[in-house]
Amino acid sequence: MSSLLLVLLMLVLGSLTLQGTSIRHQAQVSQAALEKAALTDSANVESLLEWGRMLSWAVQPADQCQTHPAFKGRICLRLFVDGSGVLIANSGEQTRWQMGMLTDSTVQFDRHGWSDFCPLKEAVQCQLP
User: Fold this and answer.
1) What is the pLDDT of residues 13-62, one digit of tens each?
2) Which domain holds residue 119?
3) Would you say the pTM of this structure is higher than 0.70?
4) I need a labelling partner for 109 at 20 to 30 A (CA). Which of 14, 70, 82, 120 fits?
């Protein structure tokens, strides 16, 4: 009788161990999926920003947006009355900004690269139109 109880106890402990391992595995799979989505969004937003830098933007209207079929997201240029502008790229939860200046009817972007935080004092100006 005691050996039967010992076998049952081992089965219960083994079952609990397997359940714990399964729950931990599911959590790791979920975390990996979130990380993959974040990396994909990051790659898309950086590609959009680089693509947006190469576009020929018009001087008017002040807010202009474009999408690229290969990348999920949008790229927008917001021009201000002082001749400055900000290029805003967004994909999923990721957003990047790059400042620029309007010179001779073309936008010249900052050589120092993009920013992952709003470079303007007014956060509203950094939102996609």
Assistant:
1) 999 999 999 999 999 999 999 999 999 999 999 999 999 999 888 888 88
2) 2-126
3) yes
4) 70
Q: Say how far apart CA 83 and CA 107 lie, in whole Å.
A: 9
Q: Are 87 and 100 in contact (CB under 8 A)?
A: yes
Cβ-proximal residues to 41 (8 Å cutoff; 6+ apart), any chain:
72, 73, 91, 92, 93, 94
Tell me what pLDDT residue 1 has: 78
Q: Which amino acid is at 106?
A: T
Whose tokens are 């979920």? That residue is 30
Considering its fold, how many domains does the chain have in total?
1
The reported pLDDT for the residue numbered 98 is: 94
- pLDDT tens by residue, 86-101: 999 999 889 999 999 9
Residue 99 CA to residue 108 CA, distance in Å, equals 9
